[in-house]
Amino acid sequence: MNIYLIGFMGTGKTTVGKALALKLNKKFSDLDDLIVEKTGKQIVEIFREDGEEEFRKIETEVLKDINEKDNFVVATGGGVLTTEGNYEIMKSNGVIITLAASPEAIYERLRNDETRPLLMVDNVIDEIKRLMFERAPLYIKADYIVDTTERPIDEIVNEIVEYL
Ligand code: S3P
């Protein structure tokens, strides 16, 4: 079994995932990192040169690979559930946990970030709200949802461990 962390960009999937893996004595993996390793390209380059559709294909490939393994805490990319079938892949060998945060908190965390191609727009806060609203039906499919807005990492990790 694996533990899949899903949720919007900037909700803390990587940070919480690493701490959770340490606490549970599991391995940690980040889908975006696996994509960078597999393609030899940064995420922004893949979006720019190959397009989002190609990125989603590679995302599903690395998800399938990690799903064949066990004992991983996996930080997914914020759009992993926009691809049909990815929910079923994760459920077949794992628990799915959504990390949630307010649009304002996400904006503060990502306002100077240049690694998120989907947020390279003029009005970032509006785009965060729009995308979050659009994806809400996907994020609520998780087995458990934990709020990460203005909370220390260990408190978030403890809440997830209690749920598990
Ligand atoms: C995306 C989120 C990113 C990355 C890509 C697309 C999304 O991952 O996979 O830029 O569609 O929300 P993070 O959630 O780790 O930022």
TrEMBL record:
Family as reported in the entry's similarity comment: Belongs to the shikimate kinase family.
Gene: aroK
Pathway: Metabolic intermediate biosynthesis; chorismate biosynthesis; chorismate from D-erythrose 4-phosphate and phosphoenolpyruvate: step 5/7
EC numbers, comma separated: 2.7.1.71
Cofactor(s) the record lists: Mg(2+)
Catalytic function, reaction form: shikimate + ATP = 3-phosphoshikimate + ADP + H(+)
Superkingdom of source: Bacteria
Cellular component per GO, a single term: cytosol
Predominant subcellular localization, coarse grouping: cytoplasm
Free-text cofactor note: Binds 1 Mg(2+) ion per subunit.
Organism (species): Deferribacter desulfuricans (strain DSM 14783 / JCM 11476 / NBRC 101012 / SSM1)
Keyword Magnesium listed: yes
Binding locations of substrate: D32, R56, G78, R135
Quaternary data: Monomer.
PROSITE patterns: SHIKIMATE_KINASE
PANTHER family the record matches: SHIKIMATE KINASE (PTHR21087), SHIKIMATE KINASE 1, CHLOROPLASTIC (PTHR21087:SF16)
GO molecular function terms listed in the Swiss-Prot or TrEMBL record: ATP binding; magnesium ion binding; shikimate kinase activity
Residues reported in the UniProt entry to bind Mg(2+): T14
GO biological process: amino acid biosynthetic process; aromatic amino acid family biosynthetic process; chorismate biosynthetic process
Protein name, as recorded: Shikimate kinase
Primary role: Catalyzes the specific phosphorylation of the 3-hydroxyl group of shikimic acid using ATP as a cosubstrate.
Subcellular location: Cytoplasm
Alphabetically ordered keywords of this record: Amino-acid biosynthesis, Aromatic amino acid biosynthesis, ATP-binding, Cytoplasm, Kinase, Magnesium, Metal-binding, Nucleotide-binding, Transferase
